[in-house]
Design goal:
Alpha-Beta Plaits; two-stranded antiparallel sheet; binds iron/sulfur cluster; globular; single chain; five-stranded antiparallel sheet; 7 strands; 3 helices; alpha+beta
Length: 105
Amino acid sequence: MAGIDPDFQSNRQKAGEHKGHAVWGPVEPPTKLGIHGSSTAVDFDLCVGDGACIDACPENVYEWFETPGHPASEKKADPVREESCIYCMACESVCPPVAIKITPR
Ligand code: SF4
C-alpha cells in the first residue's frame, strides 16, 4: 500500500514552516499541502482526518488543523508539538492511509 515516502527528507524540498515544524513541498493550497513535520511527519495529502493518531498519542503531539478544500479531508492531524514525541510509534501504526513517518532524531 502506498503511504508517506519514508525518504521524503531527501526526496522533497523544505517549502516553509508551520507552527514550529517544517513543511516539505510541493505545496499548492488548497489541494496540495505537503508533509508537515520532520521527525514526526504527516503527509497532509494522504491524511484522511481519521484522528486515530490524535487518540493514540500519549504526548499530545497533534492538534487538528482545518484544511477546507483539500480532496482527502478537510482537517489534518498537525504535529504541533513535534519536539515532545517519544517515538513510541503508536500514531504510525494506527494511521489508516499510512500517512505518518516517525524518524527518531
Ligand atoms: S510516535 Fe508516539 S509520542 Fe510520537 S507523535 Fe506518535 S504517538 Fe505521539
